[in-house]
Amino acid sequence: MLRISKMTDYAVVLATHLAATKEPHAARDLALETQIPEPTTSKVLKQLSRAGVVASQRGAKGGYTLARPAHEIGIEEVIQAIEGPIAVTECSDESTDSLCEYEPNCGVRANWQRINHAVHQALSQITLADMAFPFVDTLITIARSGKEAERARLGESPQGDAH
Amino acid sequence: MLRISKMTDYAVVLATHLAATKEPHAARDLALETQIPEPTTSKVLKQLSRAGVVASQRGAKGGYTLARPAHEIGIEEVIQAIEGPIAVTECSDESTDSLCEYEPNCGVRANWQRINHAVHQALSQITLADMAFPFVDTLITIARSGKEAERARLGESPQGDAH
DNA sequence: TGAATACAGGACTGAACCAGTCCTATATGT
DNA sequence: ACATATAGGACTGGTTCAGTCCTGTATTCA
After folding, report:
1. Which residue has the higher pLDDT, B115 or B153?
2. CA of B158 vs C1' of D9, distance in Å?
3. Strands (E), B106-163
């Protein structure tokens, strides 16, 4: 259901990698560090740049950095940068004889909005900061899923997640 | 990100249609009512049947019914019936020289679990009953009712991508 | 029993999409 | 100027998806 393309996976890995430091990373270096093929790395970073998730600096000593602090970048932003806007049902973009006109199904299809909203909200709550420091907190979160882990995460990113 | 295939859309429409009544619906009738091509309707219903979302009755007077009451069937169940299990990152199913061995990225990738969980939970909360009677409660939650809701929704979330 | 009805299960195909590469600009620092 | 790095497309092989069709099996009813 949640189709995670490889490119999206790459994007998350790369963005998370950038979250670790503040200095610009060249695409080539990131490719080496993440073991993602270099041309592909470059392609993904370009997409992230266009989407405003990362900032780029050309020329010598250039490279990529996060466009904003890690805790301000929701994971859904990264995903959308690659996969495009949330897929709504075709109901709305078919200008042909749409079912909506004469079928009660339209109400059904309208509910996709609700589904999308739920997913969107769920993803927005996870930031790059959460992804960047999985060792101390996130994996514990999965294992225990308690408030203890929550406190640990908040302690690890002292800025406090703005959500 | 949430890739909604056409088949999945069909599945939700069909399942919702079944939620309205208790009598068996032949695939052919459902196809007519929903305007979905008949062979495709049949295919989707078969998948739903195999997944245990709908029950089937062969022979004359046969057809499909919901396997359980509509309010007991979560929408993610329907989606999974078509799209298969939630896609986790390939990190786990690549038995080659996985990055996990020597890269901190593994922690990053493990976080997909977290993302998946959030999405899963969000979808489980929406049942077929919610989809079947949007006029009574669901659309009220979102906005209002009928076409007024449609307009209101389009107005406030202008992400209508035209494919 | 036999005919009609309706689902079950796969095989198949054309089209769309995706991962990945490569090439040519353009910007930047030394 | 020159080396470095991103920007932006064009292109390709492979995979997946939407949709159809065919054969088999179960069920009802005359």
Report:
1. B115
2. 29
3. none
User: pLDDT class for B131, splitting at 50, 70, 90?
Assistant: confident
With a 7 Å cutoff on the CB, does A31 touch strand C? Answer: no
Gap between the terminal Cα atoms of chain B: 14
Q: Among A38-42, A87-91, A103-107, A158-162, which is the least confidently predicted range?
A: A158-162
A54, B127 Cβ separation under 8 angstroms? no
Determine the distance between B103 (CA) and C25 (C1') in angstroms.
35
Let me know: does A135 contact B35? Beta carbons within 8 Å. no
To test the contact with chain B by mutation, choose from A77, A108, A142 the residue with the greatest count of B C-beta atoms within 10 A, namely A108
Classify burial at B94, counting beta carbons within 10 Å of its beta carbon; exposed 0-12, middle 13-18, buried 19 or more.
Answer: exposed
Give me the residues of B, 110-129, that contact A with CB < 8 A: 110-119, 121-123, 125-126
Q: How far apart are CA A18 and CA A15, in angstroms?
A: 5
- Judge whether B126 and A115 are in contact, CB under 8 Å: yes
DSSP code for A102: T
Pick the CATH number of B6-85 from 3.90.1150.10, 1.10.10.10, 3.40.718.10, 3.40.30.10: 1.10.10.10
* A49 compared with A121, residue with greater pLDDT: A49
pLDDT tens sequence across B82-94: 988 765 544 444 3
What are the φ and ψ backbone dihedral angles of A4, each rounded to 5 degrees?
-95, 110
The pair of structure tokens assigned to A90 is 């075709």
The pTM for the full model equals 0.76
Query: How many other CB atoms are there within 10 angstroms of residue B57's CB atom?
Result: 12
CB of B63 nearer than 7 A to strand C: yes
Token pair, residue B116, equals 């998946």
